[in-house]
């Protein structure tokens, strides 16, 4: 990463304006469309009706990852065709929900053309992802491009080399083609910053697309990308996946190579960020994970775990081996904040579908979720204020204190740093306490063997990804339905279940755990959340990515069968 | 772990004296021997000549782990016989080199008797380590016993439960039978504390047994235990293994379960301590690692890596697959401190033996070892001074500032904390720099593929474990030959090569890298190190335990063949 120029640096507003102008110029003029007015909230159908994409391009962009790869491998569709189709749809998506940061059409099409040549000349694909366009959250450095993670202060900092995962995906034959929007500092579950502005939800633009991988969520939901890579520190892959109706995976620490990412809280070695895939099908998640792990990422990233893709684990050898008669545990709430009615209903749908498919369903008893969430925030906040201050003070860029529409006047949300940092010794005491709770939670899980009837502990937990669906902007203020699994380092996947239905999802009064729970309850009104996707989360144990993917497929099939 | 009583706590001298008295009373009177006078430096033959052990007990205690397990499994030797034999020899060893802390004969023999009954009744062994006595460094909590890690302040703190590894080994059929001495704070490469005093080297009692697992090193060297478990944060398994002529393994973070250990710098989540086996044969190391990993320790320790024991990796599938034509790289020195002549000679012996066995040997070029060592110390020292102060201030116990014979008058050694701690943000910056160097080192290793002639990068590095053999007490002041591999999280094994020979190992002047290098050179005099074992270290990459064990077997066989 080239050093920033700290002398003679322009004011942050100038940097942001100049970058935004360059972004605009990077869009081919012929791909500019006339989007619906702001009062049109649901724009999900627009890419197919706007006229920019022809029928074949619509077909290509509606195709799932596995079929795309088959068509590419047999040259039924060229990489240039596929990249062009997704690029056009991505640019349309951007004009609807403002989801992109870096746009580099020529470079992506040149790469696609190389792949086509290779296949034509050799008769072989370059690798298992031959010709597949992949989008990336604005953290994954690509040589020659800027990576601002939403800081105006970092405009003009061009990467000297690719992130390790980018190199691996290129080795696999993929076509990196766009990067996507994030919140300033990344430490928000919504997506807004001073450089690129706000990303909105394609199903209802008055709602957030989530964050911090919110650009990715919105883009994939609009099928502007077949596969996106986000980053998850406390839910940043899963929250936008859930809010945008996608499949998404939060792998365990080190299962995917993280080296070369521009992150937040760099050097924080405790509750670690991880990269994870987001897609419109669970098969996309599987294909991606298997391809990347099969390249042995530990040869190129010192923190990547030396653990092969394990077909036995995918075939659930540690869970009975057949994929039948599994025992799922539903966590109806976390004991802190009760989920809104659509979430409750989705859990009921999942329970019925799984029971119909012959699986057992029990209740999950959460333990110490509040404490886990608090400790995790305290660990992140141990040095975050100093980091943000140093980063933004280079240009005088204001630190954003809310994701709300009226940025200046909204109260600071509860998960912003409240202190000036602590000592290393104090940090160690927090980390020590966290390890103790991780042990308690593991033992708690193991002890469920007595109630499953399978002879095994619960195979997976099914729980909300948030106590609500996509919220109005600035209102997503609770991330512990995802963050606790980061603290425990459990593999977790998001899958879609339904959408908000005002007739089925009326207000449902309940006793409150606390004042915040009451606030969350009072936010609910089915009309406000009209058309929002409702997703759930499936949680396995540490480094159980293969089993989590397989069990998500099983749940997905059960939901489909129950429809 | 029960809380310490902070009110009405006796003075530390009273606590230490009372504990030492209890230790003395725990030794069966009939096992008290008359050890040679202090002027007898080499006491390694004494256990077999002192008359306490009969011929069968001598045979048992001279038997390697694999054969012991066979004899136990077929009931040729009972667990009570084997435990009694090792216990007697351990107690003799203790009277020679002061290596034990907790002694619990009745409990161990009762456990052994249970195992014998089980085998007799069922015809089956309890597990793969049936009847094997195992000794433990004074960090691995055993229910009902104290774990002081050399702090007088912690006398009287009894464990409420076993460390996870203890439970696993019991499940495997092992017999925990003694615990062994450590330095106060654990953060020294020698072994001395205010409670139990100093452990000396069985081959020359004027020399240290190393540390911090120095009690374990001395005990196993005297064959008072067939297998010991130490803990390695910066070399604490490998240094005593090397100084005492043993095989020892430093696994990667999380390969063995660490939960339930009383450690130092608890909550420090960056450069992590790991448990590791120490034995008189490499097969002992293998048997132990395979048995423990096959119990799936990740089900009981949230930090244990979900990675099965991999026979393919043991069979070197990633290293050509045959165990032949490997390429080893010898690191003659680390660019900071030049090793003493016996170490140099042992590297030459290893090179010749490997070449004779048909392997290729190239030179290893160390990069940034000084920086890695410095960063690692800075990370540990970020909060260590505060931890030590809080622990010792409970009773007024003085913090030991040297491992020298005259504790009060020796200068503070260079690796003691020099500061009062840093902030969490400052710690993150150190950790970030360390990750960058880990990446550089991994790339450096990968790039050796161009010089090996095998098509692969170097298969393993062979290097000193320290720039010297066991030093006089208080003189072991350089641990970076081991600590850099902790910082890089590379799996590393110790194996014996030769012993110091005054005719072959005369002084050998050389240019000095720096003043410290000169100091180390000037410490050398072959007479001073008479009879000391000379060991080397074999280093593989992260989570390559299986391959490191196999390659150590290959080197060991080559050395034997060359004798």
From TrEMBL, chains A, B:
<dbReference type="InterPro" id="IPR020556">
    <property type="entry name" value="Amidase_CS"/>
</dbReference>
<protein>
    <recommendedName>
        <fullName>amidase</fullName>
        <ecNumber>3.5.1.4</ecNumber>
    </recommendedName>
</protein>
<keyword id="KW-0378">Hydrolase</keyword>
<dbReference type="InterPro" id="IPR023631">
    <property type="entry name" value="Amidase_dom"/>
</dbReference>
<dbReference type="GO" id="GO:0004040">
    <property type="term" value="F:amidase activity"/>
</dbReference>
<feature type="domain" description="Amidase">
    <location>
        <begin position="81"/>
        <end position="548"/>
    </location>
</feature>
<comment type="similarity">
    <text>Belongs to the amidase family.</text>
</comment>
<dbReference type="InterPro" id="IPR036928">
    <property type="entry name" value="AS_sf"/>
</dbReference>
<feature type="active site" description="Charge relay system">
    <location>
        <position position="137"/>
    </location>
</feature>
<feature type="active site" description="Acyl-ester intermediate">
    <location>
        <position position="236"/>
    </location>
</feature>
<feature type="active site" description="Charge relay system">
    <location>
        <position position="212"/>
    </location>
</feature>
<dbReference type="Pfam" id="PF01425">
    <property type="entry name" value="Amidase"/>
</dbReference>
